[in-house]
Specification:
Elements (H helix, E strand, L loop, with lengths): L2 H18 L5 E5 L1 H9 L4 H9 L3 E6 H9 L5 H7 L3 E3 L10 H11 L2 E4 L3 H8 L5 E6 L2 E4 L4 H41 L19 H8 L4 E3 L5 E3 L8 H9 L1
Parallel strand pairs: 1-2, 1-4, 2-3, 4-5
Antiparallel strand pairs: 5-6, 7-8
Helix pairs in contact: 2-5, 4-5, 4-6
The site of zinc ion has 7 residues, from helix 4.
């Protein structure tokens, strides 16, 4: 096998492993169409897949796949005998078999299976779901399909969300830090600010003129005969020109 082919398959496997939790030994879910193509091109599935992946892989199928292949009879006899050799995974349709494609779709919902199939409709359907990994035969050569558009979109979206999440976390962290710093600064610079403005020390201040006059000349109170204290009426100073005018009258 050419190195570039291995690099390509390795890149795809790493992509699915890192983004969709595919793990070694990779589980390859094989259907009768894949077996039929392998038979036509006279290749050994197990040998080819192991060579192609260059890492451990577990080849398996389901009861539904076997039953469908058996029901198709003569044209698929060879493929049926091949598919029967693989380990049969429980699919949940025991006693109530469903078409192979339906069974495979349901199997890939909760588990990480690399689907080995030549069924175009099944492939199309799986490409629409993020995280589905496809293997097919191009003539006698196994090809691990590059991640579908849906898979790439999903990964990009998740990466974007992660970035956003990290940015929000960073901003929150910075805000928190800034907040802590601000309170620390205000505490150091003006710890009693919240108590309001401080009055000057009365002993250190010179008294205003007004205060002094009030002290030296206390308000004179006139006591009349009734004993009621009346405050002295403050005389209004009449300007000279007004006085002159009044005296003329
Ligand atoms: Zn099934």
């Amino acid at each position: 096998m050419k190195i570039s082919r291995f690099k390509k398959s390795h890149k795809t496997l790493v992509y699915f492993a890192s983004n969709f939790e595919y793990r070694e030994p990779y589980q390859v879910l094989i259907d009768a169409t894949f077996c039929q193509a392998a038979l036509q091109h006279q290749i050994g599935i197990e040998e080819q897949i192991r060579k192609y992946f260059q890492c451990p892989a577990k080849l398996l199928t389901t009861q539904c796949v076997i039953l469908e292949a058996e029901s198709l009879g003569a044209p698929l006899t060879g493929a049926t005998s091949i598919v029967k050799k693989f380990h049969v995974h429980k699919c949940g349709h025991e006693g109530k078999p469903v078409p192979a494609a339906e069974c495979i779709k349901s199997m890939t919902k909760d588990n990480r299976y690399i689907v080995a199939s030549q069924d175009r409709l099944l492939q199309e359907s799986l490409r629409k779901v993020p995280g589905r990994c496809l293997l097919y035969l191009h003539k006698a050569t196994p090809v691990l399909e590059a991640p579908s558009k849906a898979s790439r979109k999903w990964v990009q979206k998740r990466a974007k969300n992660l970035m956003l999440g990290k940015q929000v976390e960073k901003i929150d962290f910075m805000k928190e830090q800034q907040g802590l710093k601000n309170t620390e600064v205000t505490k150091k610079v003006n710890p009693k600010k919240s108590k309001g403005p401080k009055n000057p020390n009365p002993l250190s201040c010179k008294k205003s003129k007004k205060d002094r006059t009030q002290q030296t000349k206390p308000q004179i109170h006139k006591v009349d005969q009734t004993g009621i204290t009346k405050a002295k009426r403050k005389r209004k100073k009449i300007p000279a020109h007004v006085k002159a005018a009044l005296s003329k009258v």
